[in-house]
Amino acid sequence: MQTKYLLSEDQIPKQWYNIIPDMPGPLAPVINPRTMKPVTPDDLLPIFPMALIAQEVSRERWIPIPDEIREIYKLWRPAPLYRAHRLERMLQTPARIYYKYEGVSPAGSHKPNSAIPQAWYNKQAGIRRLATETGAGQWGSSLALACNFFGLECTVYMVKVSCTQKPYRKSMMQLWGAKVIPSPSEFTNAGRSILAHDPDSAGSLGIAISEAVEDAASHADTNYALGSVLNHVCLHQTVIGQEAKAQMELTGDYPDVVIACCGGGSNFAGLAFPFIADRAAGKQVRCMAVEPASCPTLTKGVYAFDYGDTAKIAPISMMYTLGHDFMPPGIHAGGLRYHGESPLVSQLYHAGEIEAKSYKQNACFEGALLFARSEGIVPAPESSHAIRAAIDEAVLAKEEGKEKVILFGLSGHGQLDMGAYDAYLSGNLEDYDYPEQKIREALERLPKVTL
Amino acid sequence: MQTKYLLSEDQIPKQWYNIIPDMPGPLAPVINPRTMKPVTPDDLLPIFPMALIAQEVSRERWIPIPDEIREIYKLWRPAPLYRAHRLERMLQTPARIYYKYEGVSPAGSHKPNSAIPQAWYNKQAGIRRLATETGAGQWGSSLALACNFFGLECTVYMVKVSCTQKPYRKSMMQLWGAKVIPSPSEFTNAGRSILAHDPDSAGSLGIAISEAVEDAASHADTNYALGSVLNHVCLHQTVIGQEAKAQMELTGDYPDVVIACCGGGSNFAGLAFPFIADRAAGKQVRCMAVEPASCPTLTKGVYAFDYGDTAKIAPISMMYTLGHDFMPPGIHAGGLRYHGESPLVSQLYHAGEIEAKSYKQNACFEGALLFARSEGIVPAPESSHAIRAAIDEAVLAKEEGKEKVILFGLSGHGQLDMGAYDAYLSGNLEDYDYPEQKIREALERLPKVTL
After folding, report:
1. Residue B206's pLDDT is what?
2. B378 neighbors B416 (Cβ within 8 angstroms)
3. DSSP H/E element including B299
4. Domain containing residue B260
5. Which of A366, A433, B306, B330 suits B317 as a labelling partner, its CA being 20 to 30 A distant?
6. Distance separating alpha carbons of residues B10 and A437, to the nearest angstrom
7. Is residue A208 domain-resident?
8. Are A418 and B167 a contacting pair at CB < 8 A?
9. Which of B171, B369, B421 has its CB closest to that of A421?
10. What is the predicted pLDDT for the residue at A18?
């Protein structure tokens, strides 16, 4: 009874899959918040290298992965695909459940899939240092790892309260040589202006983004790197779905439904986009993005132009949003707390090409516990959203007496999130109702864009 | 350039390798501390199932691995073997360095290799609950995982100070359904007698062993499980070395030296014993056990009969020991702080069949940092001892201008040990000189055994 489906290193994808030419209609322009006109490549050059700007708008379906990047991918890729035999038995379901596990990377999640190429293209462009922000720490540690491999300096603006709550993530960044700066800091105008009004500010992702972007924009040898949302980040993550397709072929099954958790959208895009591409060949596959009920961007947000950050210095994109100053409650799935959503994922959802579902965190941890006790692996709180949705699909299959093939993305492990499990096991995990009034208020502050 | 050497699930070993028939001479008897006579199987039945007692003394070279155990092994086995290309380049060494990585198990170390069979054999024997002790928490979490799979209850006596210092390990045990009791506790005579004299006792591994053994011995439905030292634990771990041999064949290389960290000895045994077996076929391979300079059992201890625990209730074995009441300093490699050593490993060392080396912890963390920055993986503090020795062998190869093939065991990841890395990076990690006077004193209290 086979449990793991492995590929050899020469089966690491040689190209990333770019969904842009296959989108259902043209992309909306991205707007420069200063000029309120469409962004030009020149607008982005102070913070991104030209190669990544080109990937952001490329209409090539396949983009070659440089050998130097594939060499680093080999440290953990191809990532394994599992058949969840024990979970199936526990659920007594006729469904066959598979999961693609990205927690095998040194940083413990899928994030290095994009951190490695971002660092490499910046190195090629002669950049000496990258600046970024991190909340929960998954992205910051992945970029620290990537910069370390290519001899780049790395500055991570880490939300101040996270430095205290997630000290191990901070330590990992430092182990890989990054400089971690609690945000808000005295190093940027953005940070200083916050501290002037509130010296004890605990920080927020919005502030940390502003600090990192300002740092990059004001130093010629420094660029900025973002861990999700952007087209080129979704692009890099498609190694996940391409490998999963090759592995599903080994199983002899093809998924009826592909499920992934969705915050900024790159994890969902990475797994789902290569399956969506199969539809052109007549394959029928549902794709489901799962998000927290307390930050329900797709399921309760609006499809509109909005700023990428709270401070309104990042570009304005057409996307599902809860409003750029929406502050979601402090759930444990820190990686799913973004107010917006990848424009590509948003457009697909708006066109009815994909589904979305939301869960409260106790329901997710209930699924994570069932998973940890059947499959062994401790899931990241983010990934637990996909697990919960997969379990519900499997239970439905049982009720309907249907065979069904379910594939979900296990985007990371949760060994550094045990405090969240403690809270769940002791019955102290809060469920948040989605603050409808707050969203309505935030949506009144969307930018006015006239094309 | 291949980085990982993988095996398929049907290449998970079907037998454990038992080194007893290949030992250089007969085994010394194990002594019952109450009677001071050789232990009989009946002496052990109150705490171990007959199948494991039989394995402890078996003279069969190959012992079949039950299918039910191989099914669970499939959740992470075969474990990958890596070529450390990037570390080699960093060291500019002509040596080829390979490492076998056991951190891919759900618990993050090699420990489940024995926890799974121990739980299974106890389940077969009709046992309802297992009791054990844990210090750093690697063994406790592995046994919790194993008991969970087979529907056994699990009680872990965890050294009280570790409950505070390693809260995430405690959480993992609870996630997998174990009951964690800070030791010393009010639940046993051993615990109560300690608390009567010292209500604030921080606990010790010796006390926790006494509590777990007493719990098992005083409940008919409960047995005891030990995570290292014993012959059957070394036996179970030989899946590591057998897989590594098959993977080394794929590389086209054969190791000149095999290196593993060594506390109780089962990790070293697991990797090295199958290579030692190759000597009968004329292969020349050095095997090196690496231990902390602050707990130098092989390199500074004596080969003598001694108690397995501080409270003198565990059997007396012929082994290298620092004395059963030797208390090593609180180094971060918590898994290497045992006063004794596997009798099998001890006998091999006494016979000159294997080498031993010790390092202070700053030297080990220096190696771990180099490794994390070249290979990405964050090593467990225990495993860093093997890394340091492998680096020194590689540097020596460079100085001598020799090609050399080095294989070392990376027994676990260190993502839950980031506090230790913080201490190292901030220059606050203490190096302990080995307390020679204390060892001399402890050795005066060895038991007198007359055969």
Report:
1. 81
2. no
3. helix B297-300
4. 67-108+232-443
5. B330
6. 57
7. no
8. yes
9. B171
10. 98
- Dihedral of CA atoms A319, A323, A329, A331 in degrees, nearest 10, equals 10
Q: What distance in Å separates residue B292's CA from the closest CA in chain A?
A: 22
Instruction: Give the alpha-carbon dihedral of B332, B334, B335, B341, to 10 degrees.
Output: 110
Neighbours of B341 (CB within 10 A): 30
Q: Write out chain A residues lying below 8 Å of B167, CB-based.
A: 418-419, 422
> How is residue B343 annotated by DSSP?
H
Q: Is A89 on the interface with B (CB under 8 A)?
A: no
Residues of B in contact with A379 (CB under 8 A): none
What is the identity of the amino acid at A251?
A: T
pLDDT at A169: 94
DSSP B133: E
User: A4, B416: Cβ pair inside 8 Å?
Assistant: no
Q: Which residue has the tokens 């592909």?
A: A258
* Alpha carbons B4 and B83: distance in angstroms, whole number: 6
Phi, psi of B8 (to 5 degrees): -85, 165
Judge if the upstream peptide bond of residue A328 is cis by omega within 30 degrees of 0: no
Q: Are A212 and A133 in contact (CB under 8 A)?
A: yes
CATH code of the domain covering residue B436: 3.40.50.1100
Question: CA-to-CA distance for A201 and A161, rounded, in angstroms?
Answer: 9
| Residue B59 is assigned to a structural domain of this protein | no
C-alpha B376/C-alpha A301 separation (Å) is: 39
Do the Cβ atoms of A122 and A147 come closer than 8 Å? no
Q: What pTM did the predictor assign? A: 0.97
Task: Evaluate whether residue B217 is within a structural domain.
Answer: no
Low-confidence stretches of chain A (pLDDT < 70) are none
β A15-17/A62-64 pair status: antiparallel
Of the candidates B2, B148, B421, which has its C-beta nearest A9's C-beta?
B2
Radius of gyration of chain A (CA): 20
H or E stretch covering A69: helix A67-73
Please report which helix (H) or strand (E) contains residue A117, including its range.
helix A112-124
pLDDT < 50 regions, chain B? none
pLDDT tens sequence across B413-424: 999 999 999 999
Say if A11 is an interface residue toward chain B (CB within 8 Å).
no
In three-state secondary structure terms, A405 is strand
Of B104, B176, B422, the CB nearest to A104: B104
In this prediction, residue A302 carries a pLDDT of 95
A82-114 tens-digit pLDDT? 999 999 999 999 999 999 999 999 999 999 999
Q: Cα distance from A345 to chain B (closest Cα, Å)?
A: 31
DSSP B118-153: HHHHHHHTT--EEEEEESSSHHHHHHHHHHHHHT-E
Q: What is the DSSP letter of A30?
A: P
Tell me how many domains chain A contains. Answer: 1
